């Protein structure tokens, strides 16, 4: 089956987007009013897209599971957003952002998409400033920049430690303006539970009102999913509690391909796990690595004494500290990409040098920068993060180093999309973290916000319009067509089935079990045997779920356990596909580290001759092995080399 | 140092908006003081589910103090007995062994109860929709550095923009006024050249919407500022009033 066609426009990489726009089809204003677009998700990607569609004159319906669009998970992003503005005049350019991103992604991303991302990045900053986003500024009144992992230039714009919040509020306000103008209709606490196909095209969704428990049928000429990542497969992650992979998974089950599911990012700077009732992990922004130095004791006995509570980090003399990132990677030091930093921390802890009561932590120390810059400068830069840390851990990072450890943070994999961000289902588009498109095997810091807003403001408005231009004669459907009715019935049956299991275990207890299997076998370091075991274990968990989950409460009205159970059922299957994909990919690249494929000094080793492709998985039915399709990646503009941050 | 404590909870239970609510009493044992308050609620819920009962419904998402989704009126204070934090950032080390903790939803005419501890805060979205934005479309805007903005203005705008829309200010106010929330947005945008153009009109529309939705009047009690987890200052209310007066003069 020649199903995988990325439909990349002709021409040199720098011309492709211009060429695309030149040839793109338009819809005239009178026809726009007759066309309905469903947008699912109000994060950066969804809110930006819906606001833009509304401004263009389309009829938009937008859905979120939270009580307000302003609460999407994007709100939590701390550090910043990249853009190739080159305001500091330090040698940045679209081309450099492009090649940094391809390299940072360990050469597993599609060049054409990444180039477009870098190209539109500059417009994002203009747009946000025009909306009143209060980015950090210098005394001269111009915008301030900082640097982030994987880059040697300062191209990251930020709003204190709350960049995601400010960007999302900008997009949210633009969205609410359209709600006020009645071009957008907003559905809150309302969850996509299935996608409706008519003649092979996406024509709507079935949603579930989380307050009444009732299902609803919604028609759209096109459907855009911007539902975020599936990092919560691991139970513990830095994602918000409600983040889930269910919408993407329903798309997969309806025929959309799922790409590179095993590419999950582990973030090096999170607050370490403290107990079995821990519900989520808190990220300490990567921007801290600009001024914080990462170390563990150089002597094992010191590490042991610290774990036993007999020594404090401040007792360890300078010469007895091992600044292992600076030691191993002198060129990038503490600013190596996330995957490299995470693995280096794991390596030290596995070797017995870890700190904290569990030994699964390393220090992030600000002593030197406080001495160099003064406490007030550090406070201005990171005050809210330090406060957050102190509230959680009850330690003051101005006086004693923070403790950090890697945690699951972001999923590069996701629904496969072509250049237009269209899935293999015509009329179904996917944007933001939910798609797989721009970050390859590893995402650079501050690039997710960039991608979400690029997709929403500057890509989908063109590509969805191009698709709809052929659809102006398609009349609105009422939702009473048999495809809608049948899909709704299947959804209701599914929820009934979950409720009727009537077993003995809470949703969370099963989810935790899944999370442990994922972390142990499909986490930071993977190997063949472990992955095979993981697949068996996950299948057993699936069985346990469907025979032993317990959902108290009623069918009608709000039932949070039922919502969670429905999402967990999908997480289990996503976990299985992640393991299958990780097993297939016999190489180490980016966030995917196969122990069998490493250099002598423990660096990741790609197998470009065999794996320079996107794995695209096709659903073949419940309990059936999925089928692998390959999108071969061609590198015409960035040279394929082993990443080197030394 | 962390230790384990036993506590008694008095939790507001209410099946839905129509039915009457009541307090239920629960015991939770061996809670680590290193746990967050919501992790303690998770433990309670796990206990309830294992007994075959319905867990307590409460709103939460980010669990790190930024989304504004969590709420809870704990021992008579919105977001509980710690300063400058949201409920999800509250830790059990603030409580002692043997404590009784009262947990209620936000209580305000503007925020009807949906279930147990969950309230409907869509009124805040309606207020933003009435004017809490700069009226620009996507594309065709000037370069981001075209208009320099004095750093103090940008910083003050950022202070105001830190509002997370949680509603604690309304819950804390005896009049159920949403003035602190409204003023934070009006002030942020009025401080920036991009938002200044519409400042007066914005203030007028947002205040009108707030009144229409049943929020009370501001009588300057200052209770909102005390309970705001993000330290939003009542000085923003003064700026809102100035913009509001300008709008009246223009009318
Ligand atoms: C703690 C943290 C810090 C981060 N910091 C940075 C940073 O500094 N820079 C950076 O670039 N990136 C950062 N990231 C990553 C970045 O925040 C996310 O990747 C990005 O915001 C995702 O945006 P999104 O629009 O794709 O999805 P989200 O913001 O996750 O939004 C998903 C939306 O979909 C809705 N939804 C989900 N499922 C359904 C359904 N079935 N039905 C209806 N609606 C649904 C949700 O309600 C929500 O509105 C950070 C991430 C975390 C966790
Ligand atoms: S002003 Fe403060 S209390 Fe009120 S909604 Fe905003 S953050 Fe919450
Ligand atoms: S859960 Fe997000 S602020 Fe508390």
Automatic annotation (TrEMBL), chain A:
<keyword id="KW-1003">Cell membrane</keyword>
<dbReference type="InterPro" id="IPR003953">
    <property type="entry name" value="FAD-dep_OxRdtase_2_FAD-bd"/>
</dbReference>
<keyword id="KW-0560">Oxidoreductase</keyword>
<dbReference type="InterPro" id="IPR011280">
    <property type="entry name" value="Succ_DH/Fum_Rdt_flav_su"/>
</dbReference>
<keyword id="KW-0472">Membrane</keyword>
<dbReference type="Pfam" id="PF00890">
    <property type="entry name" value="FAD_binding_2"/>
</dbReference>
<feature type="active site" description="Proton acceptor">
    <location>
        <position position="338"/>
    </location>
</feature>
<dbReference type="InterPro" id="IPR015939">
    <property type="entry name" value="Fum_Rdtase/Succ_DH_flav-like_C"/>
</dbReference>
<dbReference type="GO" id="GO:0009055">
    <property type="term" value="F:electron transfer activity"/>
</dbReference>
<feature type="domain" description="FAD-dependent oxidoreductase 2 FAD-binding">
    <location>
        <begin position="36"/>
        <end position="449"/>
    </location>
</feature>
<feature type="domain" description="Fumarate reductase/succinate dehydrogenase flavoprotein-like C-terminal">
    <location>
        <begin position="511"/>
        <end position="645"/>
    </location>
</feature>
<dbReference type="GO" id="GO:0009061">
    <property type="term" value="P:anaerobic respiration"/>
</dbReference>
<dbReference type="Pfam" id="PF02910">
    <property type="entry name" value="Succ_DH_flav_C"/>
</dbReference>
<keyword id="KW-0274">FAD</keyword>
<dbReference type="InterPro" id="IPR027477">
    <property type="entry name" value="Succ_DH/fumarate_Rdtase_cat_sf"/>
</dbReference>
<dbReference type="InterPro" id="IPR036188">
    <property type="entry name" value="FAD/NAD-bd_sf"/>
</dbReference>
<keyword id="KW-0813">Transport</keyword>
<dbReference type="GO" id="GO:0050660">
    <property type="term" value="F:flavin adenine dinucleotide binding"/>
</dbReference>
<dbReference type="InterPro" id="IPR030664">
    <property type="entry name" value="SdhA/FrdA/AprA"/>
</dbReference>
<dbReference type="InterPro" id="IPR037099">
    <property type="entry name" value="Fum_R/Succ_DH_flav-like_C_sf"/>
</dbReference>
<comment type="similarity">
    <text>Belongs to the FAD-dependent oxidoreductase 2 family. FRD/SDH subfamily.</text>
</comment>
<keyword id="KW-0285">Flavoprotein</keyword>
From TrEMBL, chain B:
<dbReference type="InterPro" id="IPR012675">
    <property type="entry name" value="Beta-grasp_dom_sf"/>
</dbReference>
<dbReference type="Pfam" id="PF13085">
    <property type="entry name" value="Fer2_3"/>
</dbReference>
<protein>
    <submittedName>
        <fullName>Succinate dehydrogenase / fumarate reductase iron-sulfur subunit</fullName>
    </submittedName>
</protein>
<dbReference type="GO" id="GO:0022904">
    <property type="term" value="P:respiratory electron transport chain"/>
</dbReference>
<dbReference type="GO" id="GO:0009060">
    <property type="term" value="P:aerobic respiration"/>
</dbReference>
<dbReference type="InterPro" id="IPR050573">
    <property type="entry name" value="SDH/FRD_Iron-Sulfur"/>
</dbReference>
<dbReference type="InterPro" id="IPR009051">
    <property type="entry name" value="Helical_ferredxn"/>
</dbReference>
<dbReference type="InterPro" id="IPR006058">
    <property type="entry name" value="2Fe2S_fd_BS"/>
</dbReference>
<dbReference type="InterPro" id="IPR036010">
    <property type="entry name" value="2Fe-2S_ferredoxin-like_sf"/>
</dbReference>
<dbReference type="Pfam" id="PF13183">
    <property type="entry name" value="Fer4_8"/>
</dbReference>
<dbReference type="InterPro" id="IPR025192">
    <property type="entry name" value="Succ_DH/fum_Rdtase_N"/>
</dbReference>
<comment type="similarity">
    <text>Belongs to the succinate dehydrogenase/fumarate reductase iron-sulfur protein family.</text>
</comment>
<dbReference type="GO" id="GO:0051537">
    <property type="term" value="F:2 iron, 2 sulfur cluster binding"/>
</dbReference>
<dbReference type="InterPro" id="IPR017896">
    <property type="entry name" value="4Fe4S_Fe-S-bd"/>
</dbReference>
<feature type="domain" description="4Fe-4S ferredoxin-type">
    <location>
        <begin position="154"/>
        <end position="184"/>
    </location>
</feature>
<dbReference type="GO" id="GO:0009055">
    <property type="term" value="F:electron transfer activity"/>
</dbReference>
């Amino acid at each position: 089956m020649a199903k995988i066609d990325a439909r990349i426009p002709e021409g040199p990489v720098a011309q492709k987007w211009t060429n695309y726009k030149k040839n793109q089809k338009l819809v005239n204003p009178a026809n726009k009013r007759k066309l309905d677009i469903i947008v699912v998700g109000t994060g950066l990607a969804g809110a930006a897209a819906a606001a833009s569609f509304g401004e263009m004159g389309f009829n938009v319906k937008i859905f979120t599971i939270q009580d307000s669009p302003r609460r999407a998970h994007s709100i939590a992003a701390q550090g910043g957003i990249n853009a190739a503005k080159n305001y500091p005049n330090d040698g940045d350019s679209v081309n450099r952002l492009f090649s940094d991103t391809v390299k940072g992604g360990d050469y597993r991303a599609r060049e054409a998409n990444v180039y477009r991302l870098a190209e539109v990045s500059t417009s994002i900053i203009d747009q946000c400033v025009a909306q009143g986003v209060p980015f950090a500024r210098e005394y001269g009144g111009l915008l301030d920049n900082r640097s982030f992992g994987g880059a040697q230039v300062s191209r990251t714009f930020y709003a204190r430690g709350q960049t995601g919040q400010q960007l999302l509020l900008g997009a949210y306000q633009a969205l609410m303006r359209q709600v006020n103008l009645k071009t957008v209709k907003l559905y809150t606490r309302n969850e996509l539970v299935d996608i409706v196909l008519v003649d092979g095209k996406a024509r709507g969704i079935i949603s579930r009102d989380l307050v009444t428990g009732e299902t609803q049928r919604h028609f759209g000429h096109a459907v855009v999913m911007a539902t975020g990542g599936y990092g919560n497969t691991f139970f513990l992650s830095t994602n918000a509690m409600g983040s889930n992979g269910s919408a993407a998974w329903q798309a997969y089950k309806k025929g959309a391909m799922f790409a590179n599911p095993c590419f999950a990012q582990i973030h090096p700077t999170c607050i370490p796990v403290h107990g079995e009732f821990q519900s989520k992990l808190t990220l300490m922004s990567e921007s801290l690595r600009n001024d914080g130095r990462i170390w563990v004791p150089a002597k094992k006995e010191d590490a042991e004494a610290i774990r036993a509570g007999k020594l404090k980090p401040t007792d360890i003399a300078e010469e007895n500290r091992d600044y292992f990132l600076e030691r191993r990677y002198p060129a990038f030091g503490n600013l190596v990409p996330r995957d490299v930093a995470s693995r280096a921390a794991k390596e030290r802890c596995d070797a017995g040098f870890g700190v904290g009561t569990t030994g699964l932590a390393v220090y992030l120390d600000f002593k030197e920068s406080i001495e160099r810059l003064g406490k007030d400068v550090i406070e201005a830069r990171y005050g809210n993060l330090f406060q957050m840390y102190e509230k959680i851990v009850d330690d003051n990072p101005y006086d004693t180093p923070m403790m950090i450890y890697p945690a699951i943070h972001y999923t590069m994999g996701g629904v496969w999309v072509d250049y237009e961000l269209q899935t293999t289902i015509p009329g179904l588009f996917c944007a933001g973290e939910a798609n797989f498109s721009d970050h390859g095997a590893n995402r650079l810091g501050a690039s997710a916000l960039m991608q979400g807003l690029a997709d929403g403001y500057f890509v989908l408005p063109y590509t969805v319009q191009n698709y709809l231009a052929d659809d102006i004669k398609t009349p609105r459907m009422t939702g009473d067509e048999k495809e809608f009715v049948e899909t709704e019935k299947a959804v209701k049956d599914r929820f009934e089935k979950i409720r009727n299991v009537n077993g003995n275990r809470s949703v969370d207890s099963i989810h935790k079990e899944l999370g442990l299997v994922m972390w142990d076998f499909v986490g930071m370091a993977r190997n063949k045997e472990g992955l095979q075991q993981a697949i068996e274990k996950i299948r057993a968990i699936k069985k346990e779920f469907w025979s032993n989950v317990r959902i108290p409460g009623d069918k009608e009205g709000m039932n949070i356990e039922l919502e969670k159970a429905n999402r967990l059922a999908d997480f289990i299957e996503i976990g299985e596909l992640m393991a299958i994909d990780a097993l297939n990919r016999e190489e180490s690249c980016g966030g995917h580290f196969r122990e069998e494929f490493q250099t002598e000094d423990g660096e990741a080793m790609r197998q470009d001759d065999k794996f320079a492709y996107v794995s695209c998985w096709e659903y073949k039915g419940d309990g059936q092995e999925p089928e692998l399709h390959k999108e071969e990646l061609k590198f015409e503009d960035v040279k394929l080399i082993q990443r080197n941050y030394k | 140092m962390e230790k384990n404590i036993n506590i008694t909870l008095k939790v507001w239970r209410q099946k839905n908006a129509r039915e009457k609510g009541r307090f239920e009493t629960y015991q939770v044992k061996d809670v680590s003081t290193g746990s967050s308050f919501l992790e303690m609620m998770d433990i309670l819920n796990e206990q309830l589910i294992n007994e075959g009962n319905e867990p307590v419904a409460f709103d939460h998402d980010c669990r790190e103090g930024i989304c504004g989704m969590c709420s809870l009126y704990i021992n008579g204070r919105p977001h509980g007995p710690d300063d400058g934090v949201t409920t999800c950032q509250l830790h059990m080390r603030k409580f002692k062994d043997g404590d009784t903790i009262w947990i209620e939803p936000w209580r305000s005419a503007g925020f009807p109860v949906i279930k147990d501890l969950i309230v409907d805060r869509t009124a805040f979205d309606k207020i933003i929709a009435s004017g809490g934005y700069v009226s620009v479309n996507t594309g065709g805007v000037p370069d981001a550095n075209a208009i320099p903005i004095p750093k103090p203005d940008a910083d003050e705008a950022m202070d105001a923009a830190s509002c997370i829309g949680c509603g604690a200010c309304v819950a804390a106010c005896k009049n159920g006024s949403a003035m602190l929330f409204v003023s934070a947005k009006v002030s942020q945008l009025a401080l920036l050249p991009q938002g200044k153009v519409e400042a007066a009109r914005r203030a007028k529309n947002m205040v009108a919407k707030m009144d229409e939705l049943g929020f009370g009047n501001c009588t300057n009690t200052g209770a909102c500022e005390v309970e705001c987890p993000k330290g939003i200052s009542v000085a923003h209310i003064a700026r809102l009033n100035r913009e509001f007066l300008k709008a009246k003069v223009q009318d």
